[in-house]
Amino acid sequence: MSGLPSAALFALLALLLTTACGAGTTDSAGNANGKRPTVRIALGVDASYAPLYLAAERGMFEKAGLDVQLMQVEGGPAAAQAVTAGTAQISANADSTALPQMVSNPDLRALGAFQSSGRYLKVVLRQGITSPDQIRTMGSIQGIGLYATHEYLQHHGIDPDSVTIRQSAPQEIPTMLQRGDIDGYILFDPWVSKGVAAGGHIAGSIGDFGVTYVQWLIADQKWLADHQELAGKVFKVVAEADRLVTEDPHAAALAAHEQAQLPVAATEKAIGEISFTSRALTPADVTSAGRIVDFLEQQRLIKSAPDLDTVLLRGWYDQHAG
Description:
The protein is α/β, with parallel strands linked by helices. The protein has 15 helices and 10 strands. Strand 6 (about 135-140), helix 6 (about 145-155) and strand 7 (about 165) form a beta-alpha-beta unit. The longest helix has 20 residues, at about 230-245.
């Protein structure tokens, strides 16, 4: 390199410096070429994400001038963890799943709700179990599954400590039921249908014992601080997709099949059990989150409570996406 003319050496150094500076740029920050910033949304694989599937399938994000990519993960905490890791900018998570993540990463923020239900998650019991008091072992996923399992048992006068609760991934739980390893579980489709196909039967929905869940869109405050307008535009598309899913569940089920290979008939049925409405977070959401946090602390699943007035951005949706 010492043999290069000084002008050429200067140009080479300038090129190297420019390349090095550009290497650390994230997709969501855009780039010098003026391309649209990429926003990755982490989400699970089931009918509750139908608005996101429909928006992607119909090119709704592109029509709004956005470059949005859906990043399918295992579900549960994995979506929020992708935001924490920086591999996604936004995630879709149920309240009871998001709140523990907000303890480990207090920079996570719930922007608003895009759906809720008290019917989508169902109780599945194995053959021969005809009454809750026969239950000795239950399977459960983290978050909403564990919370609902405790509420179900308590509703029927059963001390949850008297029942063995085995946490596992959703895809493993119907097989556990079929083998007789567990007496029941609370999950959503397609795992409800798979449990029935494995010999189980549906014994009710979570709303029967006073439980509902709310799905939030979540972002990290460090990213959100510089991308409020961008996040608002993304949420506006989700809100419009919510409306379209409600109007035409069959079209939404077809989109879910194309985007996530979900069965059309079962997905369409599940969509009818969910309220797809985007809205701002309310004091009622804070109260409900407080009950979930109390449960998590009682179970020693979290060491401290998140500051709900900080992590739940009441009013953000109305300001940026309404």
